[in-house]
Amino acid sequence: MDAEVFDEFPSPADELAGRTIAVIGYGNQGHAQAQNLRDSGCEVLVGNRDDEFRAAAQDAGFEVVTIEDAARRAQIMLLLIPDEVQPEVFRDQIAPGLQDGDTIVVASGYNVHFGLLDIADTVDIVMVAPRMIGEGVRDHYERRESVPCLVSVEHDASGRARGTALAVASGIGVLRGAVSSSVREEVALDLFSEQAIWPSIMAIFQAGYDVLANAGFSDDAILDELYLSGEPAEILGRVSRVGMIGQLGLHSKTSQYGQLTNLLRSGAFTDQMRERFAGVLNDQILSGAFSQDWSGSDTEPDADARIAALRKKAEATSLSVAERAVLDRWS
Ligand code: NDP
């Protein structure tokens, strides 16, 4: 299914004239988007707590106010604080200052899709979700290279939400090729990648390590071959430019023959993964079960404690133990 792709954008300075943009949070995305929007001719202020991020915004020449003041003064709010704190900050510090016709801009679909922000019907909701880290958003802007981005209009109370979304996208450095999407699609793809693809890649390395270690090969040689040499990063870099099969030409003929014969023989394994991945997508992500588990309970210990407990278990696996020992030996 092909998506609509936006290649033409209104001028941010014209489309957003007379409206103040509040960048809420001057972190990874916030520092980049605030500077890009300012350099694009928009009126930008920063809302941040009183700490080192506030000082960084002040050093960059921004007027920095409390989040409450930013929400009262601005007409367009970019929510650029971590997803897990947005519901509470929104409820207590942003919602009371919103006016009819204001716009909430999210950079991730999570909280809007799962209904974790209680946004009044009179407020526009759009998503401008760059597909790169904040440093990349700033670097691309400075080099006049287009920032890859998903854009959507989720609620258009004012009748001008689409123009606002495209102008904000342009202001943060999207020059062409913004993909029309939705918070549902953004969150599904993002969580799927995190919950289906990457854990499976880690599990494949784990299984590979166990088989090779049981066969008596050394941890140093195994882990060097599997990933500590950095070869997979180089291969993935090439994949991003010429595709999975396209990059095979870089490998020896022996390697290509071995990779292709085994790829074409892996139908049963792929079928098993398809079934497992469909479960992750439907039963875990789209059903809301993951969001309920992660964001739905006030009785769970805080996010850092939950992650620390899981990390402790992951660090006890045979691969993790071997990896630490090898990295220590090599350092
Ligand atoms: P960061 O973790 O970099 O956000 C840090 C900012 O949030 C700081 O200004 C920090 O201020 C503030 N903050 C943190 N906790 C609180 C709190 N409890 N109350 C008030 N302010 C708080 O966020 P990101 O830039 O990574 O993410 C922002 C949004 O962008 C998210 O929706 C994310 O999903 C999305 N996104 C992120 C990408 C990325 O590469 N990181 C890529 C694309 C989208 P303080 O100093 O006060 O803690």
From TrEMBL:
Residues 1-182 form the KARI N-terminal Rossmann domain. The keyword tRNA processing does not apply. PROSITE patterns: KARI_N. GO terms for molecular function: isomerase activity; ketol-acid reductoisomerase activity. One of its GO terms (biological process) is isoleucine biosynthetic process. Keywords: Amino-acid biosynthesis, Branched-chain amino acid biosynthesis, Isomerase, Oxidoreductase. InterPro entries: 6-PGluconate_DH-like_C_sf, KARI, KARI_C, KARI_N, NAD(P)-bd_dom_sf. It comes from the Bacteria. Pathway: Amino-acid biosynthesis; L-valine biosynthesis; L-valine from pyruvate: step 2/4; Amino-acid biosynthesis; L-isoleucine biosynthesis; L-isoleucine from 2-oxobutanoate: step 2/4. It holds the Pfam family KARI_C. Belongs to the ketol-acid reductoisomerase family. This is Ketol-acid reductoisomerase type 1.
